[in-house]
Amino acid sequence: MSLGLRRAFNQLGRRWLSTATVAESFSHDLPLSLATATASTLSKGGSTIASNQAISLNRPVYVTLSHLVPSETDTRQDEVVELDPFIFSHPIRRDVLHLCVVQHLDSLRQGTASTKTRGEVRGSGRKIRPQKGSGRARLGDAQSPMLRGGGVAFGPKPRDFSTELPRKVIMMGLRVALSARVKEHGLGIVQTLSWSTAKTKTLAERLNDLGWRKTLFVTGDEKIPEGLERAAGNLYKVEAKRVSEVTVYDLVKWPRVVLDVSAVEWLETALAKDSKSPWGTSLRPGST
Q1: Are residues 116 and 252 in the same domain?
Q2: Is residue 27 part of a domain?
Q3: 3-state DSSP of 81-123
Q4: Within a domain: residue 47?
Q5: What is the DSSP string of 237-269?
Q6: Same domain, residue pair 66 and 201
């Protein structure tokens, strides 16, 4: 379902829906028994949709809308965000995740290890002793790999360890990783990641109240909100990134991923079925 169709509800352009609206939409499409179970699940205010129910892949995914900044006047406690099932309810492929993670870790290797061969070690080519007559073993020059201080046989040289993956495999890896986070209840959606203060203590207390530990914040804006970036800079269990920098490794590494609405829109556009690589010709997320 495209973004334009999902906005057909036209609640002033907002991407969230009330729990009652979601339950009603499910009740029209599902059998009576399943619709009743789904409506009861949603009416309890749970943050997950009946992903364990027998719902087909083309049905939307709903995630409860969270709020990073606390507000006493905020009454939208039961709002949920509708997500594209092609991206957020993809079949789990462990093999694709493995390929993407290995490809990312390969690109992190420095590949600067270097040794000298016998031709690069300083010294002359003079033969150490005569070939015959000494009664000892035959030796050539002092740069032989058999001797202390000589060259290294088959030693490492600077090389590029990076590997390539097809664009479609990387994009599928992102869909699988996002779907795994939804299935494990580790995906959060917020309207904005704006944070008013740069104090680390304030952000740490708020994250503790929300139960968000080891969290990756992802924004769809061109720049990470300054308040969040500075406040999270000293928290080793918190990281903030732009959505174009996120890799499959990030989504697998962090047990909780929090996206703002603009990041969701970016992902649904970039990872659509017929979409081209959103990272240009490099085909590597995080390289921009």
Answers
A1: no
A2: no
A3: EEECHHHHCCCCCHHHHHHHHHHHHHHHCCCCCCCCCCCCCCC
A4: no
A5: TEEEEEGGG--HHHHHH-SEEEEEHHHHHHHHH
A6: yes
pTM confidence score: 0.72
Which residue range is the domain that position 138 belongs to? 112-160
Q: Are residues 125 and 233 in the same domain?
A: no
Residues 137 and 213 in one domain: no
Mind listing the pLDDT tens digit of every residue in the chain (288 residues)?
A: 444 444 444 443 444 555 454 454 444 444 444 444 444 444 444 444 444 444 444 788 888 888 888 765 555 567 888 999 999 999 999 999 999 999 999 999 999 999 999 999 999 999 999 999 999 999 999 999 999 999 999 999 999 999 999 999 999 999 999 999 999 999 999 988 988 888 889 899 999 988 898 999 999 999 998 989 898 988 889 999 999 999 999 999 999 999 999 999 999 999 988 766 555 544 455 554
